[in-house]
Amino acid sequence: MIKYASTRAAFIDSLTELAGSNPKTVLVCADSAKVIWADGFKERFPERFIDVGIAEQNAVACAAGLASCGLIPFVATYAGFITMRACEQVRTFVAYPNLNVKMVGANGGIGAGEREGVTHQFFEDLGILRAIPGITIVVPADASQVGKAVKAVANIPGPAYVRIGSGRDPVALDADLPFELGKTRVLKAFGDDVAIFTNGHAIPRALAGAEELSKAGIKATVVEVHTLKPLETEAIAEILAKTGAAVTVEDHSIIGGLGSAIAEVIAEQVPVPLARIGLRDRFPESGPAEQLMDAYGLSVGDITAACRQVLARKEGRHG
Amino acid sequence: MMSGHNVSYLEHMARQIRRDIITMIYEAGDGHPGPSLSCADLVTALYFAVMEVDPANPHWPRRDRLILSKGHACPAVYAALARKGYFDPAELPRLRTLGGMLQGHPDMLKTPGIDFTSGSLGNGISIGLGIALAARINGLEYYTYVITGDGELQEGIIWEAAMAAKHYQVGNLIVFVDYNGIQSGGRIAEISGLEPVIPKFEAFGWHCQEIDGHNFTEILSAVANAKATPAIPSVIVAHTVKGKGISFIENNNAWHKRVPDKAEWEQALQELGAEP
Predict the structure, then answer these.
(1) Which pLDDT tens digit goes with each residue over A182-197?
(2) In sequence order, what are the beta bridge partners of A220?
(3) Tell me: the pLDDT tens digits for B207-250?
(4) Mapped to the 3 state alphabet, what secondary structure does A263-296 carry?
(5) What is the per-residue pLDDT across A4-33, written as a single tens digit (0 to 9) for each?
(6) What domain count does chain A have?
(7) Considering the domain boundaries, does residue A216 fall inside one?
(8) Per-residue pLDDT of chain B (276 residues; tens, 9 = 90+)
(9) Domains defined for chain B, CATH in brackets
(10) Do A61 and B123 touch (CB under 8 A)?
(11) How far, in Å, CA of B146 to CA of B42, rounded?
């Protein structure tokens, strides 16, 4: 049975706590207060709640102005409206001046956008932001990790992006697990046949795939890469060297996100066979989250097949 | 502060800044003369009669701020900052050169006195809104000035910001529109006309004034009027001449971005009251 907890609630709870202890904390919305469940924040800190209405470019540029005066604005709305509608404001007025603006993008991934359809399913956000210098990019595993990740990015100066989900997000990890910004971690180590790199709400699928492979005698190591930037390349290269084969599993396009990030480490440092699980350069459609991810290449079967394929290539067999 | 200054002092300073503009573009071999000369008087009035700033402490939290939304006119601001004492005027000819502090468009991390990075058009009022709101949250009293071009009023974000600035009643936000009527590609009226400008801002709930953007008495009194209406944002539509002050550049859009040759530079300096 999958358990669910809201990453949106986790974000706003964490932010409210931060606002209580740091008077510089500000929330900037673009008619997104309802999306991120911000009523409580608004009641407690009305003077530090700014809603510019449905105007994301204005929200990001305004947040940049706030940050230039020593405040710590969190801009929170749908992932694509920050990273696409306001992309240039993020790049030129947040990242370039290295301002302390934190961005929180909801509906990250097709499973988070689910029944809303393509306009509200965002599977390009990480690729877009990864191309911009200087932004810390975090894809927390689940609600509990979001709460901790929000505090972690608040503690570092400079721009950061935290990806959150739909509000009905699978619980992936033990709630007691800490969150250490910038660090990869092994979630499950059956063995060194293949490394499965994963993050966000794709983690339960990656773990299920590894479990299934283990029963068939294939020993995988599941590695969580929640911080896409800065990427912990040394640790990743070490794991690649040990396993000699890799699969990436993410709810994002295979172009630009975790799959690309790992491919870059592989190509430059440890050339090993790689298969990328994610949305394969096409538009999805509306549907319940779990069905949608199964239908668009993120099923447990897709993951195990990809692992078998890279193993075959590693062993010189045709995959 | 206006006291202690007079119009002839500002006119004298504006001529110096115009000479700096044309000289830095001539020596650097790159830059936008027309747009810089157009707003030179607005910039001069702000730095030498209006804004409370401290060149020795460019990050002073209580200072007034200027965002040059039309960032390509930065030679005007660079000259003003240098003459105000933020940095040595000897830096000016290093405009747009590798390793220099004066980027092709303003960079708040590289140039002392630049309050905000700019260059991509349309964003200055939004950023100004954030800075103006920050005064309220931080419990500080300062004014946020924005100079936008006229052409950039075509950008949608301008009107997003205009709507929100009224909603948030940021009376400490004062926007100048440098209205010379010519954008990069030609006459605004022929490309995608802006008129009526004042009724647009009025409809958005702003305090509106219209002035001659080269007349210091009008500039200073418009700022005083704007400050006297503390509950709403103010726009001052400043009618200007693109290339103002140099005869062969005035209203000649070939000079939107062009470098003078030696003879042109010498003539410009003579017109601006100095020997090369």
Answers:
(1) 999 999 999 999 999 9
(2) A194
(3) 999 999 999 999 999 999 999 998 999 999 999 999 999 999 99
(4) HHHHHHCCCCCEEEEEECCCCCCCCCHHHHHHHH
(5) 999 999 999 999 999 999 999 999 999 999
(6) 2
(7) yes
(8) 444 459 999 999 999 999 999 999 999 999 999 999 999 999 999 999 999 999 999 999 999 999 999 999 999 999 999 999 999 999 999 999 999 999 999 999 999 999 999 999 999 999 999 999 999 999 999 999 999 999 999 999 999 999 999 999 999 999 999 999 999 999 999 999 999 999 999 999 999 999 999 999 999 999 999 999 989 999 999 999 999 999 999 999 999 999 999 999 999 999 999 866
(9) 7-271 (3.40.50.970)
(10) yes
(11) 10
Q: Determine, for residues B123 and A65 on separate chains, whether the beta-carbon distance falls below 8 Å.
A: no
- Alpha-carbon distance of B154 to B126, in angstroms, equals 14
Which residues are bridge partners to A78 per DSSP? A106
Residues A254 and A284 in one domain: yes
Positive or negative torsion for Cα B35, B38, B43, B48: positive
In a domain, A177, yes or no: no
Are B5 and B31 a contacting pair, CB within 8 Å?
A: no
Kindly state whether residue A78 falls inside one of the protein's structural domains: yes
Chain A environment of B137 (Cβ under 8 Å): 26, 47-48, 66, 71
B99 touching A, CB under 8 A? no
Range of the domain at A73: 4-170
Using the Cβ of B104 and the Cβ atoms of chain A, whether some distance falls under 8 Å is answered with no
Phi, psi (rounded to 5 degrees) for B238: -100, 110
ipTM of the complex: 0.96
The DSSP symbol for B246 reads S
**Contact between A85 and A57 (Cβ < 8 Å):** yes
> Mutate which of A22, A24, A27, A52 to test chain B, going by most B C-beta atoms within 10 A?
A52
Contact B120/A at CB under 8 A: yes
- Rounded to a whole number of angstroms, the distance from the CA of A13 to the nearest CA of chain B is 21
